[in-house]
Structures are given as C-alpha cells and as structure tokens.
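hi!! sorry for the late reply, been swamped w classes. u asked for the two structures so here they r. pasted raw, havent cleaned anything up. first the sequence of the first protein and right below it the tokens
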Amino acid sequence: MKEPATYEQQIEILRKNGCVIKDNDYCLDVLSRINYYRLSAYLLPFKTSGGKYKAGTNIVSIYKLYEYDRKLRNLIFYAIEEIEVYLRSQFSYYHAHKYGADGYLNAGNYNDRHLHADFTMRINEEINKNRKLPFVRHHIIKYNGEFPIWVVMELFTFGMLSYFYADLFTPDQKQLARNIYKTTSKNLISWLRCCTILRNMCAHSGRLYYSVFSSIPAGIPQLDVSSERRLFGAVMAMRELYPKIDKWNTEILTSISALNEQYMDVINLNHIGFPVNWEALLQK
C-alpha cells in the first residue's frame, strides 16, 4: 500500500513527470478540490511510453479538460433523464395493456433468460429505498404495498429498464422497438445497454474523456471503428433513443457544439471519438 502524499508532494510528483506548474497555489487549490487520483486520469492522453508527460502538458489545461468533462457529463445526464422518463411511459403502457396492471410480477410473461427472483428483489429494494416518497407511501398504506406497473416503473433505474426490455418475449421486443423507434429489437437492446453504461458513468462522476466503452451500439452505419467504443458511439446511441427530434437538434446538439467550441483549445476530438463531421452525424 502506498503512503499518502501531501499536496506539496503531489505537486512535485506532477512536476517530476513533466507537468508544467507555474503557480503552486493554483495547483494546490485544484488538488484540494478534486483529488490527485481523479485529476491524474485526465493526464493519461499525455503520457509517453516512458511514463512522463508530453512537452507542453500543464496543470491549467488539465484542469480545463476536467471542467469540460464535468460540464459534458451534466449535459448528457440531462438528456438521458428525458429518455428514461419516456421509456418508463412507453414500456409500462404497453405491458399494462397486454398483461395487466400486475403482469410484471408474473414470471410467465418473460423469456427464458429472465431471472424473476432477482428482478422482484431489485423492485422491492427500490420500493424500500424510496418508501418515504408520497406516491410510494400511498401505495403501501392504501393498497397494501401493491403497485401497478405504471407506478412501480417510476422507481426503475435505467439499467432496470434495459433488463426489463431485454427479458421480454421476442414478439413484445419487436413490437415495442418498431412502435417507439421504428427499429429492430437487436438495435434497441444495444442502445439501451450503451446508454445504461453512459448514464451510470455520468451519475457517478465518471470520466468520459479518453474513456473506452465496453459496448458498441448496433445499427448505426455512420460509426467507424475509431468511434464506436469512444464517447461518440455512446452519444450516437443516446441520439437514437432521444424522444424529441426538434429539442435534440436545437438544445442538446447545440449545447454540445457550444461546449466543444468553448474548450477547443484543450480538447482533442479524437480522444472522444468525434469525427470531423460529428455535428452532421449527430443531427436527427
């Protein structure tokens, strides 16, 4: 186990590895607010094979890169929230009208991959976690803890929505994919998985810049191998799922464009998989 380093020692480590620090007080303030370990991740694109940093790497630019990433996370999280609310509405409406208000509790309404005990356990965990919310407390008191799907799905995380859809019968998957997005169930499963990963990274303040994603979005021919596992691939999946075309183009996309323009002096679009024509590709 490493011994903890003081802020002053951390500054010297950065300097020793080639990071330019002209103002110790500035750097100390940054380290005291962010944590050396978190900040050092933004230095990864600038490391040489010998472990030092490339010439010109400086703490001011690294902090600006961190700020870009933080603002981008907030923007993406806002967009995914709208997708999440939309999918809760669409999935619960379809399932309720086909299988009934409590059909989600019947293991026979899912495919063979479905782990019903785990699924119901996760639902109960969310109910217990949120039992003080007015609508949850209302159903516990008045309805003896019985929740129709259109109510309980308000407690589903994005990951639970993704698993719920993936565990439906194939005809249900196909109909929902066709009705909501005019796509295939294979594509929708893939996009949901990509956005689950992206959403969790944003929710837990994970680094988006220079990250490699574990899932590749299916059915998006505009993606090439240099983009599919970078942030751009995940954002393209988010674009496919976003419910409002006009709002995506005039609000989400323009906000991403403005943010990229603001930090163009420190970001490298290749590091997040954004190709030269990224704005045209993201247009819905």
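now the second protein. again sequence first, tokens right under
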Amino acid sequence: MKCIILAAGYATRLYPLTENYPKPLLKVNNKRIIDWLIEDISKSKDISDFYVVSNHKFIKNFEKWNSLNNKNIKIIDDGSISNETRLGAVKDIQLVIEKEKIDDDILVLAGDNVLDFSLLPFIDYFKEKKASCILRYFEKDFDKIKKSGNLILSSKDKVEKMLEKPRNPESHWCVPPFYIYSKNDLPKIKEAIDNGCNIDAPGSLISYLSDKIDIYAMKMLGKRYDIGNIDSYNKANKFYKGIIKNW
C-alpha cells in the first residue's frame, strides 16, 4: 500500500501564517501537523512508500523538511503557483498515480488534520473488507454537516451514497478526508475527473464513486482537528498541549 498526503493547498484562511509557508508544516504541540500523521502511519508494515503532494510555491519548504528529518518520502510538485491556479485534490491524487505509475492500494490523507487516534485500525479495516474504505463520524449540528460530506449507509457499513456539502443533509454521518482506495478502483479516479467530478474536494470523488463501486465506512475512533483558520489552529494547539499519545 502507498500513502499519498495531500499538501498542495494555499490555506488562504490562515493568512498571515500561511502566506509564505505551507499549512501542513505548521506545528501543533511542538510537532508539525504532517509529522503527526506520518509518525502514526509509519508504524504500519503495510505502507511501502510515502508521497507528499505540494504546490510549486511551497515545494522548497517540503524538500527542506524532508532532508532535515531524513525522511524517505517523495515530494511531488503539482506545478501550481497560486490558489487560483491550483490543480485540486482529486487531480493531485491522479497526478501521483500517473507520475509514479502506482498499481497498488493507496491511503490518501489530508495533510492539514490532527488526530487523537491512530489510523492503523483503518488499514486493518480495509484489509478485512477488501474494498475501498472511508471513515465516518457522527455530527449532530446540521449546519456543520452542510459544510462536509454527508454519508448515507446501508447494511454492514456499506456506503449507499455520499453527498458533498448538501443543502439538505440526509443523515448525521460526516466523512473526514481520509480514504483508502483499492488498486482495482484506481482507474475510476481518472474516469471521475473526465466526467466532471469536483476536483477541488477529495470528498467529491467518493460522492462520484459511491454508486459505482463498493465502499465501506468505518466509524472514527476519536476526534480530529481540521486546521482551517486561525481559530481552529489555536484550538488544536490548546487541546493537544501536554497530550502524550500512547498508541
């Protein structure tokens, strides 16, 4: 299994912190956001390679981070230079698949989320289901659901459909940006792009695929912080201050 970390956004809502610095390299509890993810996933014997997708503006920042930490990670430049010219998360996934000629299962992570739980059980869940998988969490606030991916389940965790930022949510289940795609389903990603899938939001890919392939949704084992603006960044630092992760 390969791990692709999406880190090519421009985080304009976090200015001035991210005006000249990439969001995934900001620190939460004295550790970079992306390092929290990689430290956890690196414990899995199933992951053979890591890829971090950056935009061209911040490629040097990621290359420096990679070299200073002696990480065996490949940094992929998606070539974009501004928020207006960004490729979008779905095209970034396809870029890595094509550029690296990937023919394997892929774990896709948003590089701007901090978790208080391990993702290793998610990998085990995928191995059990033998199909593409996502995570889900219960959200009681419908206003928040309207800004997220909304999940409708059938029996045994199977996804019936997924609505991206729906005006009228159909359940309380939301989908965070963590996905595992079976290698058999990888050709569907280009198909989704060619057929008008919203390339900017990774959840839109699940929305497109939900009635075309088998997808299973594992209940999230803890909490996450999506670092979207200054307020959420400060809250994440406050929450994780002093926490010792003992996965």
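hope this helps!! also noticed smth abt the second:
The chain has a mean pLDDT of 92.
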